């Protein structure tokens, strides 16, 4: 094949060769220029049209009898050369860019060999057909810049030579940061986006599909180590686990040398439960997986069902004709990153005009045409072999599959196109600068006397919009800004292939919008989105917990504790709801808490309000009855005025219950406990005054004793007046220092907001209750001592029972009140008020009402005299 290339250079351009063309013998690895077009200034290129495979890499010496390296043409890569030629053609035809300057080109095809890369680089620095670097014996064909290589290792090797001469080199480099570029060469500029951007895109892609259990494939060299060491921390930060990270032997030798290792790699991939594999391999290396994968599929009769996520270092290419594409079917449904590109106006027309029969056709076109269309050119009167048809030159490039050749500009070709224009703009800016010297001969401006470093300085400052509308600029270390396109590949049974752009990564977009993906347009190998996870995702309402000694991706799901929720899938922890909300039963969202107070509309509120109203009516009827019967002995016997005061106070006690029903307000909170305390103190003071009056009445039988004097001073009025005043003073101090106020209690009852009256000072509240308890206790003791005094209408024994009921109610009230919350606490207090008031009413006044209403004969002066024996 090298002989064919040599003859292609020796013959006039446009001549197509046959296999039977005779050539002279060649020395191994002897370098010949592949393509040259003259110009005032030359743009050099080292582009990967061929790949070389050494059949025996262990040789120490090479003899003529040994075979040359097997050069295999990669048809799709021919577009790189065409993109460079198209850019130069456009620049030369542009009257505004580089007027009076013609650009030429010298192109070599890299073959992955260090010796050939070095010779190609040195040849670019020399006069044609000479190997004398930096020595020119021609006034034209000055080297302006070099495009290439599209391989990181080759780029470094070229940069080490070109950097010594300050020749601007625009190449592809799998470098992870700008600092790595600095270590390559000061004259090296990248034409690919920074790989860190691609790594972020990979993480975005994995997170979008919730894949956290993946595998990595990388070459067993420095670029592969850089890839793993850079990507792994980003994956770890996003809780993505790497199930395996395999280093693959770079493709520099034939598959047979390391067949067992390749078979083991593929076998491990088939056995692994990992569904997503990120591949950082070039096309040549990854191609060695195709054969073993096909074999394993036939042996296992199953598909690996993997999703291959391929970086921009790799492209779907095939060697030779499109008949060799079938091995790529293993990558059906794959996703690949590609350097962002746009349709360049005129490029499709440029491709359609390619004709291998034209004299100006380059040296690669004939051979490339034969390979991709699987045909032969007639030459020297020879007849093509029966297995191949005749090449007519009218074959259509559009008929070729995308993996063989793409009629739209690919990402790498787009970068080469922009690189050539960047060099032209840098040269244009340099020529226009005032400090540029020109040689003048006969009044005609000749080419400026330029130094390479001048072009390099201008290149790093250049900024322009290309014909596709994209802005192109370079930083200190490479092109910026540039993004990536995400492609989806589908291979169909009818031997057709489709590639669809399904997303992209735009570094110029705002944060959060730089990544885009359209899952509906993706074709998967398994017809559905793969489950690439160690465990199932935790649904909302649960949180993750990583067991000891397990990867962070292999977690367990635990339900959220009470009072917390998680509304996200795979939540790291559950969070508490806002104070006014509570989690639902599933624990996946917060709901507004129920408002808790005792309203009139509820059953409890209706019953308590009805009971309070009923007791109030009974009290009113009793009061009316006693007023009507005010002149009867039973009413007059035990201080008629105190009876009226007691009945009115009991009526007010029943009515104050309505202050506790309904939503608490500021006014009701201020009146609740104070009204209850003062009114009840009046009622108990009246009971105490009635009891003391009875006792003093029986003690005042002898004239001139102390009891008679006390009775004459009417102590009952003093008691009824002083005791409520003391209670009023306590309430005034309470309201002045720490008054009650409406409050929302979010925590007492789960799932509810208690609308309550905060008592302000709990001490003052219990002081009010204590004073009432003190009065009730004194009344009970006095009534108990006077219960057996002889009197027809003695109330002492009835007051004893009433105080017993009263004290029993309020003693049981305290623990019950403290053990309840919300509206039930209010209901307990209302019930205690009604029960204690009803006890006083029933025990003291029901017997009298019985006599008044049912036994009127007992309520007479005659009956009283007969009973007393008068």
- Count the domains: 4
Query: Widest sheet: strand order?
Result: 10-9-11-12-13-21-22-23
Mean pLDDT, to the nearest integer, reads: 79
Instruction: Quote the CATH topology of the largest domain.
Output: Rossmann fold
Q: What is the H level of CATH, i.e. the homologous superfamily of the largest domain?
A: Response regulator
- CATH top level of the largest domain is Alpha Beta
Unreliable sequence segments: 1-33, 56-68, 439-445
CATH architecture label name of the largest domain:
3-Layer(aba) Sandwich
Major β-sheet annotation: 8 strands, mixed
The Cα radius of gyration reads 51 Å
Strand content: 15-25%
Structural class: alpha/beta
Supply the key terms:
Rossmann fold; eight-stranded mixed β-sheet; 4 domains; disordered N terminus; six-stranded mixed β-sheet; 23 helices; 870 residues; alpha/beta
Structure, described:
The chain has 4 domains: 2-194 and 342-436 and 447-480, Response regulator (Rossmann fold); 195-339 and 483-521, 3-Layer(aba) Sandwich (Rossmann fold); 542-592; 603-868, Rhodopsin 7-helix transmembrane proteins (Rhopdopsin 7-helix transmembrane proteins). 41% of the residues lie in helices and 16% in strands. Strands 10-9-11-12-13-21-22-23 form an 8-stranded mixed β-sheet. Strands 1-5-2-6-7-8 form a 6-stranded mixed β-sheet, with helices on both faces. β7 (169-171), α5 and β8 form a beta-alpha-beta unit. α12 (411-432) crosses α13 (452-459) and α21 packs antiparallel against α22 (823-854).
